[in-house]
């Protein structure tokens, strides 16, 4: 029996249904910061179809569907970056997006970095990248990102070196990839390496959100490096003189450090009991 005319419209109906779900979610988020609005947004996201369902249903409209979901991903990320820093549905959104457009390398790249650092979920980030690597075996970007996340967050240096080597052998690989394979193989974890990696990520991308992420991480690395160096000076002062310095300025006067570094968030470093601290609370650091 020949399908009726309404059957042929089913894929379009499904896509429209998905877009309506996105629109309703945006309305719920735009409505404000009350707890119930947040719960409503989460509930609506639960009814947004998975990528595995959306892809066959929207076969004739995949480019349009992927564009809409990409816009939603950026909006969702930006909203939570500026508000509660909670990204429960970020992975779900990128699962939908990459199912609709499996060759969208930028989606894997952006999704993995934001999942790993902003959502504090490197495992889900690596899962997304491994999926992308299977679908796009000639892309150097995906194994490079996997190596970067593995090196910086999970600290599996052998696996990180393996990812970097895979990336280095692929066409068009970034010139730094071979060097990072050697660094990871040598297990050279340091503030300098972290700073150099983030600086190269910043310089190597045109994605504004990833550049902003790199700037945030560069500032965080500087705070960690500054406090570690000042703490070392405090410890040496205490060993030599049998007491703590009155303040960090005494370290300069006594020659234990040349100067006090500038705190990148506009605050200052200070001594609390025997520990060096930054005056900028963690929640206010970008």
Automatic annotation (TrEMBL):
Superkingdom per UniProt: Bacteria
In its UniProt entry, the species of origin is given as candidate division WOR-3 bacterium
The root-end lineage is: Bacteria, Bacteria division WOR-3
UniProt keyword Membrane, yes or no: yes
Q: Which InterPro entries match?
A: Pilin-like, TPR-like_helical_dom_sf
Q: Any idea which UniProt keywords this protein has?
A: Membrane, Transmembrane, Transmembrane helix
Transmembrane segments in this chain: where?
6-29
Official protein name in the record: Tetratricopeptide repeat protein
């Amino acid at each position: 029996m020949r399908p009726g005319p309404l059957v042929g419209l089913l894929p379009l109906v499904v896509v429209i249904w998905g877009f309506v779900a996105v629109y309703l979610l945006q309305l719920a988020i735009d409505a404000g910061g009350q707890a119930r609005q947040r719960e409503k947004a989460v509930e609506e996201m639960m009814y947004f179809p998975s990528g595995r369902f959306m892809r066959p249903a929207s076969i004739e409209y995949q480019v349009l569907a992927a564009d809409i979901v990409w816009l939603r991903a950026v909006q969702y990320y930006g909203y939570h970056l500026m508000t509660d820093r909670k990204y429960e549905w970020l992975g779900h959104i990128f699962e939908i997006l990459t199912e609709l457009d499996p060759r969208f390398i930028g989606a894997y790249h952006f999704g993995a970095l934001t999942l790993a650092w902003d959502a504090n979920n490197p495992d889900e980030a690596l899962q997304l990248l491994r999926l992308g690597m299977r679908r796009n075996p000639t892309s150097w970007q995906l194994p490079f990102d996997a190596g970067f996340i593995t090196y910086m967050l999970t600290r599996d240096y052998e696996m990180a070196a393996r990812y970097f080597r895979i990336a280095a052998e692929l066409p068009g690989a970034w010139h730094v990839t071979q060097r990072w394979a050697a660094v990871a193989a040598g297990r050279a974890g340091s503030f300098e390496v972290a700073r150099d990696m983030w600086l190269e990520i910043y310089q190597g991308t045109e994605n504004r959100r990833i550049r902003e992420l790199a700037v945030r991480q560069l500032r965080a690395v500087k705070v960690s490096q500054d406090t570690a160096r000042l703490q070392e000076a405090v410890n040496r002062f205490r060993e030599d003189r049998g007491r703590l310095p009155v303040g960090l300025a005494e370290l300069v006067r006594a020659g234990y450090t040349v100067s006090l570094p500038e705190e990148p968030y506009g605050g200052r470093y200070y001594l609390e009991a025997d520990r060096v601290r930054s005056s900028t609370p963690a929640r206010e650091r970008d």
